[in-house]
Amino acid sequence: MFSSRSSRLARGGLVAALACAITAGVAPTRTYAAGTDNLVYFPTFAGASTMLDRNGSADIITSSGRVHQRILRLTAGGFRQAGSAWAKPKLNLTGSFESQFKVYLHHTTPGADGIAFLVQNDGPRALGGWGGGIGYRGIRDSVAVEFDTFQNSTDPSSNHLAVVLHGNPDVHAAVGEPSIPLYGRPFWARVTYDAPTHDLRVYVQSLRAGAEEELALETKVDLAAGVGASSAWVGFTAGTGNLYSKQDIYSWMVQTPGA
Length: 259
Ligand SMILES: [Ca+2]
Known about the structure:
Layout: H1 2-23, E1 37-42, E2 52-56, E3 59-62, E4 70-76, E5 82-87, E6 91-92, E7 97-106, E8 114-120, E9 142-148, E10 160-165, E11 174-176, E12 187-194, E13 199-206, E14 214-220, H2 223-227, E15 231-239, E16 246-256
Antiparallel strand pairs: 1-16, 2-5, 3-4, 4-16, 5-15, 6-15, 7-12, 7-16, 8-9, 8-15, 9-10, 10-11, 12-13, 13-14
The structure holds calcium ion.
């Protein structure tokens, strides 16, 4: 009895700490000066519903617990879910850009399967397979940056990033293993793309006080060639399988250098 009560108290403390962490005003690093062009600017997802196409399990909801804000919930903690969300304006892939997003993957432990940041030319209804497909398997004209929390047979670990071409998560074009946990703790991610050199970088940063941004993956990939077009829809996918989780985006921005 006592231990169950204290573990409840401990959990309550953890939830409160996470609530503070998620709302803490940790400004993400940005490459371009303030005032450059924001293709996507969702500090929260309040008012975002008309600017975001959502498919499958993805929805904009009000988060529960101590933090009440509008978030993008890609999977809702059910079995075998797949969800996707795409910004209405297309992203020019012949130019450079960067995107920052605040992620919280949580619920039961262990959870599965992860989320992906995608550029794709299949359209605003694009949605791929559940489970290890992370909601993008089968989206052929795409380049994915996956944040994978479940080790399938072709995966290096249950805590890795990968760049994946043509919607085939069984083949990784590049892999990174961050030092921070992708599951159970919120984090910032930043994807930068330098169009002239095709340099793609993925950074992650814990929301803990004093945490520093970490370069977790760097590779060369021609995004326009990968999707077969000079512009693409940009957004997220996620999946669950026989293990499941709630997979939430709290903030999302996409910036281009501007004129
Ligand atoms: Ca996986």
